[in-house]
Amino acid sequence: MASENVSLVNSEAELQAICSAFWERNPGQALLLEEFIEGPLRT
Questions:
Q1: CB neighbours of 11 closer than 8 A, spacing ≥ 6?
Q2: Is the Cβ–Cβ distance between 22 and 29 less than 8 Å?
Q3: Secondary structure (DSSP) of 8-22
Q4: pLDDT given at position 1
Q5: Helices H / strands E in the chain, number of each
Q6: CA dist., res. 28 & res. 43, Å (int)
């Protein structure tokens, strides 16, 4: 199942802004952060 709250960030400041915006819309909701690894898509 895909999430509707997926973002690729390139800096710590961008990450902070994305997290703040998410928590404004979803107070108290857990947020999962994953590292992006370049390469072919595997499903």
A1: none
A2: yes
A3: ---SHHHHHHHHHHH
A4: 54
A5: 1, 0
A6: 31
For tokens 């947020």, the residue is 31
CA dist 20 and 25 (Å) reads 9
> Backbone dihedral region of 10: left (phi > 0), alpha (psi from -120 to 50 degrees) or beta?
alpha
DSSP code for 28: T
Report whether pLDDT(2) > 70. no
Query: Per-residue pLDDT tens for 15-43?
Result: 999 999 999 999 999 999 998 888 998 77
Q: How far is CA 4 from CA 11, 22, 23, 27, 39, in A?
A: 21, 11, 14, 16, 22
pTM confidence score? 0.71
